[in-house]
Amino acid sequence: MNSTRWVLAMIAVLSLGVACSNDATGGDTQAGTLTVRLTTPHADDGAMTFTVSGPPIDAAAAINASLRLFTRREGDSTVVGAVVGALADGVVITLHVPDVGAAARYTATVLEVADRQDALRTSLAGYALTVAP
Amino acid sequence: MRSWFLVLVALLAPAPAPAQTPTAGSWREAVERLRDASVRPARRSAPVAAIATSIVDESEPNDSVRTADSVALGDQARGVVNPANDVDTWFVDLTAGQFFSADVDAQELGSPLDATLVLIAPDGETVLAFNDDFDGFDSRISFRIPASGRYFVLISSFGRLQGGPTARYALNVGTVTCAAVGTEREPNDAPATATRFAVGESVTGQLCSQNAGGDVDYWAFTGEAGTTIDVRVDAASAGLLVDPFAALFAPDGTTRLMFNDDGNGADPRFQFSIVTTGTYYVRVSDVMGNGSNPFPYTLHVRPIVPGPGDPITVRADGLLIPLGLAVGSTGDLFVGDVVANRVARVSAQGVVTTFAEVPNPLGMAFDAAGDLLVASVDGAVYRVTPQGVATRFITDAVLPFWIAVAPDGRIWLTDVFDRTLRRYSSTGQIELRLDAIVVGGSGPGPLAIGPSGEPYFSQGTEIWRLAGDEFQRVVTDGALIWAFAFDVAGNIYVPSPTLGRIKLFSPTGAVLADTFAIGPDAPQAVAFGRDGTGATVARVFATEPRIGRVIEVNPTAVALPGLPVGFTAPFTPEAAAAALLGGAGLSAVDRQFLDELGNRNGRFDVGDFQAYLRTLNGLPVAAAVQQRPRSAP
Question: The pTM is what?
Answer without folding.
Answer: 0.57
